[in-house]
Amino acid sequence: MQGRLLVRLPAPAGRADPARDRAGRTVSVVRDGPFLPWPADLVELYPRNDEPTLRVNFIASVDGAATVDGLSGGLHGPGDKEIFDALRMVCDALIVASGTVKAENYDALRLTPQARAWRAAHDLPEFPLMVIVSRSLDLHLDQLIFSDAPIPPIVVTTRSAPAEKLAGHADVIAVGDDQVDLAAAVAALHERGATQLLSEGGPHLFGALAAADLATELCLSVSPLLVGGGPGRITAGPSGPPREMTLRHVLAREDMLFLRYARKTPGQGS
Ligand SMILES: NC(=O)c1ccc[n+]([C@@H]2O[C@H](COP(=O)([O-])OP(=O)(O)OC[C@H]3O[C@@H](n4cnc5c(N)ncnc54)[C@H](OP(=O)(O)O)[C@@H]3O)[C@@H](O)[C@H]2O)c1
After folding, report:
1. Which ligand 1 atom minimizes the distance to the CA of 139?
2. Residue with the nearest Cα to atom 21 of ligand 1?
3. What distance in Å separates the CA atoms of residue 260 and residue 47, rounded to the nearest whole number?
4. What is the pLDDT of residues 31-56, one digit of tens each?
5. Which atom of ligand 1 is nearest to the CA of 182?
6. d(CA 63, CA 225)
């Protein structure tokens, strides 16, 4: 089935939809406009931004579960892999926290030849940086994310962590004394030229990024499952003040929904 736009919102009084891509084309939900088809090129809808971006990608069930039987795999459905791959292709650095690396047995970051060709054509390094957040450094260094990496991953940890154990396995960014200072980590990645950041979670990492107001976008895939009680949400940990987000677009494929929200900046309308 072709993708369709399901959301029709009233246009804000006296103004067109403000969400446009760098070329000035409208790429978001066209309020009161035609249905948005599944694009031939997903990059049009998930572009690299001019400004530094921390895009968070998650999948959840319609009743808000982040996992089925402890993993995200049970939530997957038509379309989400394509968006997952497109987000990885356009980013400078992929960030994931140690809980997810271990639970999901994360592999090294590999891209298709087409994705690598796209990056070459856009003057980007062949692979994004792979960034793993861990305070304890209780990591499995024989996991493919380390042993099969095309470029050494970066582990973000604290200044008090025993970073010497990572020698030969990963580069280290040490930020914060006892807790990982995520804002400093983001700044350190920017200093390395990585301004388009993609987080694949998990919920504790997203919760901390949200609490620190570091997440600028959320790409949320909604899976047509009622999972019921048990699994947690896509954020976990201490809460911060709610942050307003604005809807950039909605795509659908069969019964899956794909929402792209961006952080609303002060003074920005709906
Ligand atoms: N639905 C989805 O899209 C999705 C996506 C990702 C993951 N998941 C699921 O989520 C689960 C894992 O998520 P999780 O929340 O338990 O773990 P997580 O967020 O992946 O990892 C948490 C770990 O990150 C490290 N960390 C270091 N500094 C941190 C900070 N400032 N804030 C937060 N974490 C910090 C800590 O590692 P150390 O203990 O090493 O210090 C902490 O234990 C798995 O079941 C996975 O399948 C679902």
Report:
1. 40
2. 99
3. 11
4. 433 346 788 899 999 999 999 999 99
5. 31
6. 7
Nearest-CA residue for atom 6 of ligand 1 = 202
245-253/93-97 β-pairing:
unpaired
Give the 3-state secondary structure of residue 196: strand
Our answer on whether the CB atom of 66 is closer than 6 Å to any ligand 1 atom is yes
- Ligand 1, closest atom to CA 59? 3
As a whole number of angstroms, the distance between CA 249 and CA 152 comes to 35
Is the peptide bond preceding residue 79 cis, with omega within 30 degrees of 0?
no
236 lines ligand 1 (CB under 6 A): yes
Write phi, then psi, for 248 (nearest 5 degrees).
-90, -45
Least confident of 144-158, 185-199, 235-249: 235-249
- CA-nearest residue for atom 24, ligand 1, is 97
Residue of minimum CA distance from atom 47 in ligand 1: 71
Distance 202 CA to ligand 1 centre (A): 4
Per residue in 132-147, pLDDT (tens digit) is: 999 999 999 999 999 9
pTM for this prediction: 0.89
Domains, the chain, with CATH or none: 51-62+70-263 (3.40.430.10)
User: Is the shortest distance between the CB of 67 and ligand 1 below 6 Å?
Assistant: yes
In DSSP terms, which residues pair with 246 in a beta bridge? 262
157 - beta bridge partners? 174
Residue 72 CB less than 6 A away from ligand 1: yes
Most confidently modeled of 108-112, 248-252, 266-270? Answer: 108-112
Q: 157: number of CA atoms within 13 Å, CB side?
A: 21
Tell me if 176 CB under 6 Å of ligand 1.
no
Contacting residues for 111 by C-beta, under 8 A, at least 6 apart: 85, 88, 89, 119, 126, 127
Write the single-letter amino acid at 177: D
